[in-house]
Amino acid sequence: MASGYLLLVADLIGVAVFAASGASAGVAKRLDLFGVAFVGFAAALGGGILRDLTIGAVPPLAFADWRYATTAVLASVAVFWLHPRLNRVRRAVLLLDAAGLGLFTATGTLKALHAGVPAVGACLLGMLTAIGGGLTRDLLTGEIPVVLQRDFYAIVALGGAILITVLDRLGVTGLVPLVTAAGLMTGVRLLALYRRWSAPVAVP
Amino acid sequence: MASGYLLLVADLIGVAVFAASGASAGVAKRLDLFGVAFVGFAAALGGGILRDLTIGAVPPLAFADWRYATTAVLASVAVFWLHPRLNRVRRAVLLLDAAGLGLFTATGTLKALHAGVPAVGACLLGMLTAIGGGLTRDLLTGEIPVVLQRDFYAIVALGGAILITVLDRLGVTGLVPLVTAAGLMTGVRLLALYRRWSAPVAVP
Amino acid sequence: MASGYLLLVADLIGVAVFAASGASAGVAKRLDLFGVAFVGFAAALGGGILRDLTIGAVPPLAFADWRYATTAVLASVAVFWLHPRLNRVRRAVLLLDAAGLGLFTATGTLKALHAGVPAVGACLLGMLTAIGGGLTRDLLTGEIPVVLQRDFYAIVALGGAILITVLDRLGVTGLVPLVTAAGLMTGVRLLALYRRWSAPVAVP
What we know:
Three copies of one chain form a homotrimer. The first copy, chain A, is mainly alpha-helical. Chain A contains eight helices and no strands. In chain A, helix 1 (2-28) packs parallel to helix 6 and helix 5 (90-114) runs parallel beside helix 7. Chains A, B, C: It is found in: Cell membrane.
C-alpha cells in the first residue's frame, strides 16, 4: 500500500520532469500555450503510451488515470510561465531527469515482463519507455532525436533494463531491488554527464 | 437506422475534407501521386487510427470499413488533379474543415467514453481524433505541426470534448446533443478564424 | 515445418536488409552507435510493429521473438563498422531490398487477412508492412519519406497485396503462391529500378 503510493509519487515526479523538458523545447520553438502543453504531455507520456499499446494494456495509463495527464499539463504550463527562471535550476532538472530515466526504465521493464513479454523484448520496451517521450518531443519540434545523436542516455536505460530482467529471472523481486536498479541507472547517468561519456560515431 | 446512416455520411464528409487538406500539403511538397494519396489517407484517418488503437478497437475503422479508405483516397486523387482550382473554393474548404473538427471530436469523445475510458482520457482522445490527422500530415511533410504553433483549433476541440463528456455524464445522450455540440464547435472555430483568435506564446 | 523454417530465414534476411538501409541512413546523419542501431531496428521492424498493433497481435513479433531484434541490431552494427565498403555491394543491397519488399508485403497481407481484416484493409496493411520501416527511418532522420516523393516502390507493394488478397479469396493458399507473388513483386521492383519508372507528380 505505502510502497504503491511511493511508486506513484515517484512516477508522477518523473512525468513532471519529462513534461518540463518537452515544454522547454516547445517554448524554444515558439509554440503557443496549447503546443507547449501538448509537447510536454507527449514527452512525459509518449514512452509509456507506446509501451502500453505494445503490451496490449488499453487504454494506456496516460488516458486511464487522470493524475498522469494532469501532472504533465500542470508542469508544462508552469514552464510556459516560468521558463526564464528555469536556467537557474538547470542542475536540479538534470538530476531529476536522470532519476526519471532510472525510474521509467525500471517500471517499464517490469510491466513488460509481467505482461508476458520475453526477456529481449522486455529490455527493449523498458528502454523505449524511458526514451520514447524524448523521441516524440524531438519529432514534434522538427529535430532529429538527440538520443540518437550523442549522449550516454539510452545505453544507460538498456543496461538498466537488462539488469532488472536478470534480477527478475533470478526471482529477486519487490521494491528494494527495483529502487536499487533505478538508483544505479540514475548514478551512472549523472556520472556520464559529469565525465562527458559518449557512444562512438562511425568514421566517414 | 436513419440516424446511423446520417452519421456515416457526415463522417465520410469529414474524411474527404481532411484528406483534401493532407493531399494539398502533399502537392505543395511535390510528392508523387502515391505520396499525395498516402498523406491524404493519414490526414483523414490518422486521428481515428490513434484513437482506435488506444481504446483497443482493432482493427481500426480505417482498415475495417473500406468506405473510409476509399473516400480518403478518392478525395486525395481529386485534389491531385484539381488543385489549381482549389483556391477558388478555399472558403468552402475552411467551412467543411470546421465541420470536420466538430464532428470528429464529438464521435471520438463518445467512442472513448463508450469504450470505458475515464472522463479526462476521453476528452484527450476526442481532441486527438480531431487533431491527430493534421499532426500526422505535418510530420510526414517535414513541418512542425501547425496545430501546435498558432491558431485556435485544438482548444475548440478540447472544449467541445469536455462539453460532450459533461453531457454524457449527465445522461444527455442521442443524436440531437451530439449534433448540437458538433455544430457549436464548428461555429466557435469559424468565429475564431473570422476574429483571428490565437493562444498565447511564451515571452522569450 | 521445413516451409515454416524457410519462411523464417527469408523473413530474417528481409529484416537484415531493411536494418542495413536504416543503419546506412543513420551513419550518413552522423548518429552514434546507439542511434544507428535504433534506426536500423526501426527500419527493419517498424512496419511489422505497426501491422501487429493494428491487428491486435500483442506484443508484436519484434518484441515477442528475440531473433528479429537480434538480427536487426547485428546487421546495423555491421553497417556501422563496414559502411565504407558497402558501396561495392550496392547492387546486392538493392536486389535484397526488392526481395524484402516482396516478402514483407506477402507475409503482412496474409497476417492481416488471417486476423480477420477485410480485403481493402488487408491490402493497405500488407503495403504498410513493407513501407512502414522506411517511413520510420526517414522520419527519425529528419527527412520527408522518400517513398512518398518518387520511386516505384509502394505501388509495387500495393499491387502485390491486391494479388495476394485475390488469390487468398479464390482459395489459393500455401507456400507456392506466396513465394510466387513475392517473387513477382521483387521482379517488378527490379524492372522499375532498371527502367526508372516513377509515379506522376502534380503540375504546379
